[in-house]
Amino acid sequence: SGPRVNSFFLGNSSGVNFSIILTPVDEETGKLQLANCSGSERAGDWNLNVTPGMNISKVTINLTRNLQLCLPNATDCCTVPLCVVETLQVVACRDSVVLAHLLIQAEIYANSSFAGDVSENATIIPNQVFQPLGSCPCDLTAGACDVRCCCDLECTSDLKEIFTASCFTGVFGGDVNPPFDQLCSSQSMEYTPEWFPFLCVQSSLNNTPFLGYFYHGSTSTPKVPSFKIPLQASPGRLFTGYRHGDPIMTEENEYFTIPQQSMAGQCVGNAPVAYLQNFDVWCLTNLASYKEGLPHDVRINSGTGDFIQQSVIYRTIPDMSKFITESESPHAANVLCQNVTFAENYTFVWQDEKIEQINVTVFLGNLCDGEILTQRFTVKFLSLKSTHAAELFGNPGYQVGKPLRAANMNASDTSGGLNIWQPAGRGLCTLATSTPVLFGLDSFSGCVLEVGIDEDCSFLRGNVTEKLNSLIQATHVAKRANSSYSDLNDWVEIIGLEPFNSDTNVSTGSLKGICPDIPANLNIRIIFADVGAVQGIPWQEILAVQISYSTVTWQFQCGLICENSTSFLPITASVQFIKVPAQPPIPLTRFQMNYTEFDCNRNDVCWPQLLYPLTRFYTGEPYSQSLAKGLSLAFLVLLAVIMSNPWFSKVW
Q: Taking every annotated instance into account, which residue ranges of this chain make up the domain Tectonic-1-3 (predicted)?
């Protein structure tokens, strides 16, 4: 049906001649002429091209004539829509012997593109809400029959007989008003419910739900919310104070933002600072993508309508090697450098629900083109009642984002730490540093260890265990943020599960480069609970800390050559905080265990919660409104009972 046909000849085409023959049908016998090797690469309006290959050759037949419909007084065109009706044979011969032949039946219609004068008459398009735009969507070619489109008016009865059994179905095939399931006449469909005759629709097919696919109602432009909170219109105090987790606002009624890490691990430059939530983040940047944050002359809303000016101290970085982690190329004489911010330390002094003071220390340094800068941003909240920075504010419990306090009770110097990896550069363990575990924040970090193919498995287990144990420099963890070192009851002992040690060295012999039972994963689980609240802020205490190891089987990975090469073993450390109730749950009674139909957690119908909207547990609307609606409903029920009584009708 097209002006080009592609076929393939399988086998060696060396010495094979390809030819094309126009094969007419014998009028007496109705049979085709037998294939012979007398043809050529051109026959009539057809050309034959061969692209030889090693074991396969591509044979292409092209039509060279014009397929445009004839205009008045035009030549070299198609006089009828069915322009070409011919039978071709492609023959492959070697030494005048026919190896293969292909029969091609060509029925090609003229092109539908119009090249004449355009009429000034506009096409009238019906209203799509009430009438389908096209009664035959598969009719895609003007003036020609579209194959398998039985609703095409250009298709004669002879042509339809060819593809009658393969016509397009559905809306595309011309059934633009099919009977829908809700029609009463569609009751013959399978699995018809018994109530169908009561709710079916009596309608003509002209009013069909398929018209809704063409209808587009009015649309409204979505409003993008801005990082602003409308101020209260009362002439009194604009704010009633910050609560734990509230975003800190500026004088312009916008969020006070500092770069922070997102859930994906990347830094977000416009992240709001939450009240009483400390954090310490590191962000990677370079000179091309460096951006300055909020200016330090922005005044902060104290929480009660007053505005506080930031107290800023600028300092110069003495050792920039801790922040410049990588250099893409050596410095040239005319390299571009800029004085940028390396670190910003914010200290918020607060009292009750108000911010009293903001101290900012900004560390500056030169960043040159081609260098990677690791910026550090820290936020700490200190109570005005605190005597020194080490003491926590009025709430003795832990706050989210605050480092855990750990101690080594077996040493004279009880100071200790509970840390996780902080990779740098290529992520090697030799270059990685550590960062404290922050309360309430589940973490997962790690580094990679270079291991040779001749590595001793016992030595590898000991080396990995030593590196993981270097993160745990403590024997106890403080229950609270203000636990005293002199009172052992204020601390919980770290429960350590020793890694599995194998006494067999499996890296020798045929198992060279394979070491099982490598303790490559350190798991830290911390159980905590809410034991109270101070000024509306939860009082959270740590109940238990457990440390365990997960083992893996290390196998040396290399390319084509494994000699004198190293492989990598990733070792990780994960921290998981598990919150449990402060008090054990009340055990189920025998009645609750036996009669589960009264258990609201196991059934969709919960009779004990029949009056749930009238209880204090319902928070869908204010309690006063739900109580008023409940009393109104009870009054209507009582009134209906009274009016249905026989004596009421006698009195009335």
A: 240-383, 397-580
